[in-house]
Design goal:
alpha/beta, TIM Barrel, 4-stranded mixed beta sheet, about 35% helix, binds zinc ion
Length: about 270
């Protein structure tokens, strides 16, 4: 049997972009936190001979072109995580279109490659999302968390865990867009990464990955650079954001990358 594949994608955003930071009083050197986390991830990918997809916030590419160069020259795919990390379901359809189109233009120009993949902040996509992506020139999306409803967060609107044309997730969506949902635990129906790996532990994530692989589904995991850093305390940011960030999460990522899975880019899943 050939080795099972998995994706460890990155949502490259600064600490200040996270919804949890909205209530912050005081400030932090957010880009320093982000670049430290990205450096750890890129080093870990290199030592594990791993290829990833990094969904980058467009405005980061403008201020940190060297980071994008490093991602591209290491052979990783650059995807889009909007221009400003706006929550798309809070925008008008014109603003939604601008967020995704500007991000694709900015990222393609800085990366020097075509950017075809998209992930929405907080899995919030709003109406007409797939048509908007199609118009802006994207080929695939990974913004659906097919999990139970987590009040105040996300989930509850989609249950299909298998990749497929966007039209099977949302009626009337263009079939030219492929949806690659993020991995959730069968039965429990909660994501395998994000907050959930930090709450439930690495064994939870690895067990879920094996269950999905047995069903022929490539698990799509995600991580944020700020999770890999000992976060500076900021008043007004909920305590749960800090749980097991920093050294615990660094060990967790290392254990995932040392598992039996072969880690590939999102883009490569489209060819299967
Ligand atoms: Zn994000």
């Amino acid at each position: 049997m050939s080795q099972a594949t998995a994706v460890l994608s990155v949502d490259c955003e600064w600490f200040q972009h996270t919804p949890a930071y909205r209530g912050a009083r005081g400030s932090v050197d957010s880009s320093a936190v982000g670049t430290e986390g990205m450096s750890f991830l890129l080093d870990a990918f290199e030592s594990g001979d791993v290829t990833s997809t990094v969904f980058v916030v467009g405005e980061i590419a403008k201020t940190h072109p060297g980071l994008i160069e490093r991602i591209v020259s290491a052979g990783h795919e650059v995807g889009s995580h909007t221009q400003t990390h706006a929550h798309l379901d809070e925008l008008s359809s014109d603003d939604h279109h601008r967020e995704v189109e500007r991000a694709r233009e900015t990222l393609s120009a800085v990366a020097g490659t075509d950017v075809i993949g998209f992930r929405a902040p907080s899995f919030a996509i709003g109406d007409g999302h797939f048509r908007t992506l199609d118009r802006a020139g994207y080929t695939y999306d990974s913004s659906i968390a097919p999990c139970r409803s987590i009040p105040g967060w996300y989930g509850g609107s989609h249950r299909r865990v298998r990749p497929g044309p966007a039209s099977v997730f949302t009626e009337g969506a263009p079939s030219s867009i492929t949806e690659l949902p993020i991995a959730v635990m069968p039965g429990l129906s909660l994501p395998l990464t994000g907050t959930w790996i930090r709450f439930f532990g690495v064994r939870y994530t690895l067990y879920g990955m094996r269950l999905l692989a047995r069903r022929g589904i490539t698990p799509v995991l995600y991580v944020h650079p700020w999770e890999l850093v000992d976060l500076p305390a900021v008043e007004g940011v909920p305590r749960r954001v800090y749980v097991r960030t920093g050294s615990w999460m660094r060990r967790a990522v290392t254990r995932l990358l040392e598992s039996r899975f072969s880690f590939v880019s999102m883009h490569s899943l489209l060819d299967d």
